Amino acid sequence: GFYFMPASGFRPDDPVCFPIYEKCVEWKVPVIIHSGKEIAHWDYCHPFRIANVGLMYPELKVVIGHAGTRIYRREAIEACIVPNVYMDFSEYQGFYHLQPEKFYNWLRDAIDAVGPEKIMFGSGFPNPNVLTPEAEWVKAIKEPKTEVKFTKEELEWVMGKSAAHVFDML
Q1: pTM of the predicted model, to two decimals?
Q2: Domain 2-166 belongs to what topology?
């Protein structure tokens, strides 16, 4: 796939990006577009701008990287209503570590809103592993210790089947 970092000063739905999207369509590779957290560039990293890319290029698989982080969690879910837009929740270890029940409720809401096939596990390694080491993060999703209920099939999609679909590995 191809990774875009709009926080470096561009909007993902700007025409300057279109030739790259067209090449990704030609090569049949997805794009991952960073979303969230850079305060100086919130507009550039908004999930709705990423959803616009999915609307303009329906044959392109588009991933909202970091699922909007802490500022655009709800908007990332809403953007995944676009059929070819997905999200990964990499760098959510801090959210899980500080507010585990709130994290699991967010994940449940996301699954209920757009389905587990639109949601991908991610780590963002090595940055967020100070609070939640990688092995603990994987276990937190594969074997959630929470009152919030997830089916085995939902967790299988989140933990790999979704990514296998997006990256044509099925």
Answers
A1: 0.92
A2: TIM Barrel (3.20.20)
